[in-house]
Amino acid sequence: MRRRFRIVGRGRAGGSLAAALTDVGWSELPALGRGDNVASAAAGVDLVVVAVPDAAIAEVSAAIEPAGSTATTVIAHLAGSLGLAVLEPHPRRAAVHPLVALPAPDVGARRLRDGAWFAVAGDPMAREIVEALGGRAIDLADEGRAAYHAAACVASNHLVALLGQVERLAEKANVPLEAYLDLVASTVDNVAELGPAAALTGPAARGDEATLSRHREVLGTLADADAERAAYDALVELCRRLARS
Question: What is the arithmetic mean of pLDDT over 58-64?
Fold first, then answer.
């Protein structure tokens, strides 16, 4: 059966999912923005995806009329940190969080069709979405959502921030950031093959305090040196803990 869906929200996540589902044969009705009248958003579709910022999901969902024939429509959100309660009072609720970075709809759609992981909960439609995209589903209970989403942010957002520090240090040596990206990729490959503890290398893991001291000296030459050193020291301590585990 050709599924019909509508996206509420015109951001990167909603646009990526809309493009991906359309590519695999689902039929999209015109998207709605947060400023549009969403009361009838569920009419004539099997699925409404509320793809707005997390803080607005409950308000937008509550504005969608669930009465009559639209009570059979699944109302879903894409938030990793929120459970199903924000979609009340709809009888069919689902959460589908793509565990992948979606920087733009065209790139995001491709990544969503490339065997992505999705955290799912609620209505079976959630798994149907994942299966249609050729993805892998993780059943996620509400009590695990904060830890799950925190891990996702560390894995993605914090890594990007860390690479910002790499770029600032590399500039001191007149080396481009691109020179380090293969190292990043091979490190991730090592973690995938060996696990974090076995993949750990470097001065903190081997107790080379002299090298760590030289690193802190050069960090002291950067703008906002105290913040740069604090971030470095915190991660050195995490390396030490991992080396002892």
Answer: 94
